[in-house]
TrEMBL record:
UniProt name for this protein: Cytochrome P450
Domain of life: Eukaryota
Required cofactor names: heme
Organism name: Meganyctiphanes norvegica
SUPFAM superfamilies xrefs: Cytochrome P450
GO MF term (any one): heme binding
Pfam families to which the protein is assigned, alphabetical: p450
Keyword rRNA-binding included in the entry's annotation: no
Length: 475
């Protein structure tokens, strides 16, 4: 076993963790004490935390570390069944992931054919942002809808108006779910016996269990309605999107008991794509806008690059990518500094296995300490600063892959939407800075909103206000 902290019987190290401040701070302390791979016990759960890029790569490439923990908070959203992509395991996960990768690519993920969709959404967003230039304003939920629309084109061949209140309601629910799973419900994950001991009222009122169930059921109803519409209009000779392909796959297996392709699994896979695809990319876009307001000097350099690369009367396209090295380096630096998923998504060992010379016992929960890698002097020249040069070579060309950089995790469960997120972010950020200058509201220091360690798992940016100023350009 890797070295580490067993803590007290029953409690494990939960008390030291609580006394040490945040989970991040406690893990930081253990990393200093025990090094790049260590164990810690929280409640009845054994965690293996890996803080070294190469060891994470080896561990997450290991076929025996591809499970997901049976956390109450994860499973509640799945009605306690092994379904969907993000928190499923075994054949269900393998088939679902392979199928999603294949068909999202077929309908345009990572291809230039999606360009028109991304541009259309970026234009809609720009028009919307243009309505409130010159005044301090919080970024609205329209951003989440525009981002979702890009994914939803591939998945369900449809778009929503960015101001559509119904779809905004669902993206808000998703965002709330991300907050709730980081709250007190985590106690049920690490002390599973409390699931039976705690009175329902405490679970509902304190841990928001009822709220999460309610959100799960509302999102389920919404996604089911999208599936039903597809069932009615399905033309087997002309599949339009991922949902059509999935329905045809179900028909192919003809309800065979062995098949993992079922309506219930389709529903859960869609919920996963909806959740994983909207909040993450939108939040990264918000971080980008915040960093631009904090670093006018860096923003000026992007403006100069854009002015040179994209004519005044043109909209940025993917073809401009090879002229936008600085912008792409800045987006990478935003991923690094934000470290959106601080510890990725937890994996589990599905049998006893070996990593870096240590035994990882079956059932152990393996965490990639992404936040640590992103802030480690071994990998970064100026880890504490916002320094896009981390991703530029001597010739000023962007360096896309670097040791120590893993915002989308690594290995067999690496984010399946990475290429989609990267393309969306490039076009959206280029379009925004092609049209606007972003500043902090007069007299406000936005840098205090950066580097917070309040959330244990996900670094979603707190609401902030910025002022957008229209550039003297013609679209
Ligand atoms: C900036 C945007 C994004 C970030 C930072 C991000 C990050 C991550 C991370 C860290 C994981 C965990 C990987 C692991 O378990 O080791 C993950 C998984 C996943 N992501 Fe993303 N993601 C982003 C956007 C997207 C988008 C746009 C989609 C939609 C297609 C997506 C779909 C998924 C899915 C389905 C999984 C589960 C994969 C599996 O369990 O096999 N993500 N993502």
């Amino acid at each position: 076993m890797p070295p580490g902290d067993w803590g007290l019987p029953i409690f494990g190290s939960i008390i030291s963790c609580a006394c040490g401040g945040t989970l991040s701070q406690y893990i930081k302390q253990l990393t200093i004490t025990y090094g790049a791979i260590f164990h810690m016990k929280l409640g009845s759960r054994l965690f293996i935390v890996i803080s070294d890029f190469h060891i994470i790569k080896a561990a997450f490439g290991n076929p025996d570390i591809q499970g997901r923990p049976n956390f109450y908070s994860f499973k509640l959203f799945k009605n306690f069944k092994n379904l969907g992509i993000a928190v499923s395991e075994g054949k269900v996960w393998q088939n679902g992931r392979r199928f999603a990768m294949r068909h999202l690519k077929e309908f345009g993920m990572g291809k230039s054919s999606l360009e028109e969709t991304i541009q259309h959404e970026a234009k809609e967003l720009i028009q919307d942002l243009a309505l409130s230039t010159g005044i301090p304003k919080e970024l609205s939920w329209n951003i989440n809808v525009a981002v979702l629309n890009v994914l939803w084109k591939l998945v369900a061949d449809r778009r929503y108006d960015v101001k559509d209140t119904e779809i905004q309601h669902f993206v808000k629910l998703t965002s709330g779910d991300f907050d709730d799973i980081q709250g007190p419900i985590a106690l049920l994950d690490i002390f599973p016996f409390l699931i039976f001991l705690l009175p329902k009222i405490l679970k509902d009122k304190w841990m928001n269990v009822h709220k999460m169930e309610n959100s799960r059921d509302q999102v389920k109803e919404f996604i089911m309605s999208v599936i039903r519409e597809h069932q009615v209009s399905l033309d087997p000779s002309n599949p339009r999107d991922y949902i059509d392909m999935y329905l045809l796959e179900i028909n192919k297996h003809n309800g065979g008991l062995e098949s993992t392709f079922t309506l219930e699994d389709l529903l859960e896979s869609l919920k996963d794509l909806f959740n994983a695809g909207s909040e993450t990319t939108s939040s990264t876009l918000r971080w980008f806008i915040l960093y631009m307001a904090i670093h006018p000097d860096i923003q000026t350099k992007i403006h100069a690059e854009l002015d040179h690369a994209v004519p005044k009367d043109k909209f940025p396209t993917l073809q401009d990518r090879n002229k936008l090295h600085y912008l792409e380096a800045v987006i990478h630096e935003v991923h690094r500094k934000a470290s959106l998923a601080k510890f990725g998504l937890a994996h589990t060992a599905t049998k006893d296995t070996r990593v870096h010379g240590y035994t990882i016992p079956k059932g152990a929960i393996v965490l990639a300490n992404i936040e640590h890698c992103h802030n480690n002097h071994d990998y970064w020249e100026k880890p504490q600063e916002f320094y896009p040069e981390h991703f530029l070579d001597q010739q000023g060309r962007v360096v896309l892959k670097r040791d120590g950089f893993l915002p989308f995790s690594l290995g067999r469960r690496q984010c399946l939407g990475e290429s989609l997120a990267r393309t969306t972010l490039l076009i959206f950020t280029a379009a925004i800075l092609h049209q606007f200058v972003i500043t902090a509201p007069h007299g406000e220091d936005l840098s205090s909103g950066v580097g917070t360690e309040e959330n244990p798992l996900f670094n979603f940016v707190k609401p902030f206000k910025v002022v957008l100023h229209k550039k003297e350009r013609v679209m």
